[in-house]
Design goal:
binds flavin mononucleotide
């Protein structure tokens, strides 16, 4: 099926081979990322998603934090070297978007709408996922490759201290991006019949 939106989301892929040959300026990419997050829906239009956008040396600093934090988890020298090389491959890109959900907003919604209280943390997770997907797709539409990573909570304390992040912002994911320097992995799809049920069509 051909459809403009489906074409865009089909092109979004996990790109691990990223580099610094991005033609867009940080200002352009910041605008793109901010708008992708702003246009993403949230429960009760609560706009609970937050982001810290890191470029160049600040982005590399983040991946060095992760690299240092992961040293404590290495089984042996070989696995340590492998992990270090993986972090360097992320640092090889030009930027990272750190996605947060503001727990103050979640608590405020719980206080205002007690009958939905247990749903608000879940809906905040949905909201960040939608914002992540929109940002990932927007970057890809601009020819910028990205992959979604999860090194929270091992770097949370350093992130909060280094970039003056409010204590109520909870780190949920990291989208690392750069120029596309390699092909995505082949991807399979399960059978539609096992996945979807349609009635009354
Ligand atoms: C919620 C979620 C969590 C993910 N976490 C990671 C991750 O921590 N590290 C990683 O390399 N990829 C991660 N991915 C990427 C998936 O492995 C990838 O999207 C999937 O294999 C499909 O490939 P594609 O992105 O190229 O379409 C995550 C994706 C989603 C949606």
């Amino acid at each position: 099926m051909s459809n403009q939106f489906l074409n865009l989301i089909e092109k979004r892929r996990t790109i691990y081979a990223i580099g610094k040959n991005v033609e867009h300026s940080p200002a352009y990419l910041t605008d793109l990322i901010q708008n992708a997050i702003k246009q993403s829906p949230s429960s009760f239009n609560s706009q609970s998603s937050r982001a810290v956008i890191l470029f160049h040396a600040e982005h590399e600093k983040f991946w060095n934090f992760v690299k240092d934090a992961l040293k404590a988890y290495a089984k042996d020298a070989e696995s340590a070297a492998k992990t270090e090389a993986k972090m360097d491959s992320f640092a090889a890109g030009v930027g990272t978007v750190l996605f947060f959900e503001d727990q103050d907003v979640v608590a405020g919604l719980q206080a205002s709408f007690p009958s939905y209280a247990e749903n608000f943390p879940i809906w905040a997770e949905h909201s960040t996922a939608i914002a992540q997907f929109a940002t990932w797709t927007a970057l890809h539409s601009a020819g910028v490759g990205a992959s979604l990573q999860h090194y929270n909570p091992i770097v949370d304390a350093q992130v909060h201290a280094e970039w003056d992040v409010p204590a109520t912002w909870k780190l949920r994911a990291q989208l690392v991006f750069g120029s596309i320097e390699g092909e995505p992995k082949a991807k399979g799809y399960m059978d539609d019949a096992a996945r979807f049920k349609v009635f009354g069509a």
